Amino acid sequence: MKKTLLIIASLLFITSTVFSQYKVNVNSLKEYGGKAFKVDDDKPYTGKVFGLDKIDRDKHIYVVEGPLDSLFLDNCLAVGGSEFSNLPKENTTIVFDNEPRNQEICNNIEESIRKEYSVCLWPVQNPHKDINDMILSGMSSSDITSQIKENTYRGTEARLRFAEWRKING
Length: 170
What we know:
Number of helices: 6
Shape: globular
Number of strands: 7
CATH topology: Dna Topoisomerase Vi A Subunit, Chain: A, domain 2
Radius of gyration: 16 Å
Strand order of the largest sheet: 4-3-5-6-7
């Protein structure tokens, strides 16, 4: 299983570095024939959004950074830096990597909280960097989903928890 995950991760990394990518608002994409298209383009979008074709907007949506991480959560997008601000805030949780010392991640968490998104702030006892590491350590997808649900915050509570999370983990 670890070899398979390593191969998948390698292929995703190579693909993401070989093909040029740029920021696109995922909500401006229109689906036609099972593919996503930018409104002003007749070619399918092949940028940074991974899993857009599998999302059910009527269900809770999880947003992660890495395509590999998105494979382990139901109804999950990997945006890798793409704009996601038009996703419905009431049923979307942004799940960042568990790296409180990473200034870019902390800035992105702060921005998501400011935009009133729900964010997952991983518990102190979780030493893993991201969802893929959690899977490799033996955690199941349902364990990870439960941990996300138990550690998701929004609004004022998210601001308070984020300050605490950063202080404890940073």
